[in-house]
Specification:
A: 573 residues, 16-stranded antiparallel barrel, B: 175 residues, alpha+beta
Amino acid sequence: MSCNLSARIHLFGLGVLTSWALLDRATNASAQPQPAQAPSVSASSASPLSQPVLDSGAGAPPNGSPLAPATSPATLPPDAGGVPPGEGLTAPSTSTAPSPTPTAPSPTPTAPAPVSAPAATTPAAPASTEPEKPSTQAPATEPFAFGNFTWLNGESRQHRSLLDSPIFTGQLLLDLNYTASRNMPIDNTVVGSTALSRNNELTIAFVGFGGDFHYEHARGRLMTQFGIRSILVARNDFSTFRGQFDLQNALRYISEANGGYHWDLLHGINLDLGIFMSYVGLFSFDNFENWMYLPSYTSDNTPWFFNGIRIQIFPTDTLKIEPWIINGWQTYGKFNEMPGFGSQILFRPVDWFSVLSNWYLGWDAQDLPGLFRWHTDTSLTVSYYHDARAFIKRVASSYTFDLGGENGDGVSFAGNAAEGHCTPNNTCPARFVSGMMYHRVWFSDQFAVTAGGGFMSNPSRYLVLSPTGNASPIPQPESTQGIQYVPATQPFDLNLGTHFNAWDYSFGFQYMPIEQFTLDVEWNHRQADVPYFAGHGGVTSPDGYITTTLPPGWRPDLVKSDDRIIFAWLVRF
Amino acid sequence: MLFRACVLAALPLFALQYLTGCGFIGGFSDENTPEGDRCNPYTSHNPCKQGAVCAGYPPSSPDQFQPYVLIPFCPENYCCSVDDSLTITSTNPNCQPGCNGGAAAMCAADRDPGACCYADGGTPATLAGCLALDGLAVDGGPLSSGGSSSTGSSNLAMVDAGDAGSGDVGDATNE
């Protein structure tokens, strides 16, 4: 019932937005000058497109990546999404994003180019040695290549890849952060985030190298994952405790590993298998692509990756439809016998507006095969001011709203039974309602400030990131550093029927002197209606060390609020 | 180019100056922990604000640097105001016997008879009796307050680090 209602709301909303955007594109195509040649580089959120080259963890660029050789130069407009001064107008397109101009060979070789549009000004790189034959049929345009989307939240701002070759486009990401909480937990541990982990320490959050392989219509992407996120994200996956062979350790050092094939049908169709990025919640797993380093709950608590199959279909150059068949909700394995199903719809009718919508249906609870989870996620991003020559170059906002729930085996979206009294006839509430909005202003290409925040309500806490340490309700043997693992004695309550409401706000500043570097400074406040964040006493032991004996009954110090400052040092090639 | 390099270098320095000069003295510091907040009983100095000490469960290691004040049936450690004789004067719930649910947690953890006794009753009148179940005793006069008292002066015994776990909370002081 709830699922049907949600689906109807979802479809209705998408229909309205699509109609409006199509009308808008038709009427405004000439009203607003479009950087026709602006290369879209990465498509993060959108992503997984065809391939993406530069796109980091996020995935592929929204557009399918072109098949054309990566070496051909693409002509970029002066304001094509913020080309750094001094780099000239003609830049080889290397980015993951589909090549902006059809003529220009796609920057990222990795993505097969769905398109075939002839280049206008730049000589198209020949795909083969055979002489070109005049074609009587106009080739399909490359998806999303008509505009510059590098300003989007969750999208790479890079216009070219420095590590490019005809068959491989390399990528390196270095993500370091320092964060300090006013709670100053004595165990230097952050609770409740997949972006932050250690307090008051310089932390190597993510070091990944890899890239996109591309040859003719075959494609593959590999991105390794070292640093603390290889523990921080994987620890939330309880499916790995089903059965043997230690899936967490087998896969934690891989953030993306997928490969597939591209067909030149419609505006491009890609089929990939493996681990690929999720854009549920708008923000990219690759913090280099985000407006803020620490996203609100809507993004922080929803999946960063999926393990399974995805098909990317580009019916037009403004639309991507991407169905998935996956093991589960950010899981390496499966909880039950059914796989998870979902899809993403990305619609960008003009280069100042983007709609990203995801839905998911899966069975993701241990020993509860009748309990299914449904989730919808919709993001609108609008750039409502843009003047390439002004000091304030661009102003944009993003709005994300998620609605979901769990039904069956004692819970429902609208249940009202109390914890411990969940029955099929008297269900406990299990739903997820969240939203977030961010507002960003760019000063030239080098500086930007962002403000925003969000909220989440999640009865039954099925998307609450479980605290760690002695408050962890899930096993975490990797955190014991070789010391005999002892299950937590005071786990945070994740039982059905519990309640959880939280909100946050943040302010941030980013300095981006070149496309390969970002310095991020931000302030974040988080608040919950139950003790959840790490307090001064931490969640580990009386002195914060896991080697110290716990007094019987020792309780982790969980508090209701957390204020912190964050510095991030991000480098990406 | 030079300008960019200067900006790049100046920003971290500015941030560091801010952190050390403003943020980390006080709000972000491990010093001057307010009353009722958790504290580290193992550290070599008193982490609590002036007039308070790190009270609660005795450290497991002997010869610790800090004297500590025991809070009966409390599995954690909190900064609590004390008088000159190291008697807790704080009214904070975390500084009272049982420390705001601590007795129940100890009872649930290992069914400690004294903790279970106090978790059920939780009044000053029952404290001595519950301590007796664990072979402990209260030294000195009658307890003047308990978990629900508003007067806030509990005559809780002190032990020094070397006597941690010796059993008699009233026999040793760190004076």
